[in-house]
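Quality-control log, excerpt.
Job 1 of 2 completed; input and output follow.
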Amino acid sequence: MSTTLQKKKPPTVREGEPRAPVALQLGDVLDLSDDALLRLAALNDTLHLERDAEGRLVIMPPPGHASSRRNSEIVAELIFWNRAQGEPGVVSGPDGGFRLPSGAVRAPDAAWLDRERYDACSEEEQERYLPLCPDFLVELRSRTDRVADLQAKMEEYRAAGCRLGWLLDPFEEDAHVYRPGQPPERVASFETLTGDDVLSDFELSLDLLR
């Protein structure tokens, strides 16, 4: 018996709670190098920090337990698939950063990188931000995320060479699938997404996001 996601609205954010990511202009005040961003993230481990292509510090508030649970399910499914396939790649979660050609440092909610591309990175790079874009990635909308911001980020990933990207929205019960050279494909009222030829035989049931 098949089941579908129950469409729901993002919970109301109470007064005083963070309402959306904040992008800080740093100018000449602070040189936000990779090292500085790593140190800053270590000092503020309850926040999700990124650097955009303009060099701004992007501060994202904690997404909440429900979003963390959904994200863990996605990463777990990706890890299980990768192991079953003989580990042809490397899986990372929202703490794994990637330095894109634009200079932005992004950390998708889930990502997969071909093993050969990962092994081509030095040990130092593997301990820091990988200087490339994942082959596959997922961004999961949380209660504080604006859809337009996430869509812009997905376009940034695609321009950087991402081969397959999913933007998942458990509140609107839909997804946008990003592929090179194609407009985003909106999938509504769905139950399962597949990994195309990037992740052969990988499937994600969206029941996990209920």
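Job 2 of 2 completed; input and output follow.
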Amino acid sequence: MLFPRETFEKFAGNKSTDANESCETLLSFDAESQEEVDALHTRLINAGAFIFGEPGWVDGWMYGLGFSDPDGHRWNMLYMNR
């Protein structure tokens, strides 16, 4: 779930970090194809997102994209061709 910072801190029982200054997690989710990754990339660019990892192949079998949400949390969308 996504919460406002104050609500998150209440549930977590401690202060949250500034994800623009540090990385506490990298959230990844699957794509069904390279085209799905590319389509998300286009939507993210049009929305003004920060892309920290342009779409591309890693080790010849994984195609991915890295981006940050408005709070600075980092995400990956990955297509694994195996």
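Post-run check on job 2. The chain has two helices and four strands.
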